[in-house]
Every structure is written in structure tokens, then in C-alpha cells.
Predict the structure of Deoxyuridine 5'-triphosphate nucleotidohydrolase.
Amino acid sequence: MTAAADAGPVDVLLRRLDPEVPPPSYAHPGDAGLDLVTTESVELPPGERAMVGTGISLALPAGYAAFVHPRSGLAARCGVTVLNAPGTVDAGYRGEVKVILQNLDPRRSVRIERLDRVAQLVIQRVEVVRFHEVEELPGSARGEGGHGSTGGHASLGKSAVSHGYASVVADREGQ
């Protein structure tokens, strides 16, 4: 067991802005995310987005932040995700927690009803940092390699064309 687990739950102050909204809750023991519901009904046409309220505001302890994550079932069944995932709720924010939903399905509209579970809230400890400006950073095994430098996807390399895979690079060059 870790020291964090030994410390017990973190106390968070919650204000319900809508008395019908249930407080965020864990669906199962051991879950990381607490379910958030929406206070409004909305229809999301294909590709469209909407910001919906959750009917709650929080006072997180100093050194913590809450992160709004998509619900995997909503994404898998309906193509709905949280647009700026994870959305960050800072400890000093006292307004309503809102969720930006987007329908990624290219053909079907999605109807979200009031009190539907639309996102998950994960509360985590966050570190406060102090930057030290330097002329040069120390070396590392990775260096400046980024944005696909480790490979792992067939369409990223030239060998993909010889295997018959569709290549993103080849498609772009062919336009």
C-alpha cells in the first residue's frame, strides 16, 4: 500500500448549483474517475460541439486539480468525447464545472438528456514548479526526438508502402 492510499480520501468542498444533480460519484470501488452529469439536454449534430453545465462547483485543496475526462462508453457507442480532454479545473476556480462535448460521428446526431452521465472527474495532486532558465539543457537518450520519432505506426514509415498499407505520407504527396 502506498503512502497516498494510507492517507485516506481527500476532502473536497462541493456546492450543488442544481438541487436535482447528484454529487459526482464513483461507479465502482477503485475507480479513478467520478461520474459527472449534465444539467441540460442538447443535440449534437455530426462534428458539432456544445458546452454543458454539470450543476456543481468545487473548492479543491491547495496542491490539487481536477481533470475532466471523456467517458469511454459514450465515446465507443456514440462517438462523443470531451473536446479539450482533459479539461483542467484549478484549485482556485469556484465557478460551475462545465464540459465541452463533441460528436465525432460523421453521420449521426447524438441526443444528450439532462442528468445523463457525460464525463469523469479525476482529482489529482499537482506539483508547483520553479523554472530555472539555462543556456543549454543536459543531454538525454531521447534528445530532441519527438512527434513520431519512436515509430510504432505502419503508416508513418516508407516501408508501409511496400507492405500494401495506406501511407499518410504517400497520400499527402499524391494530392
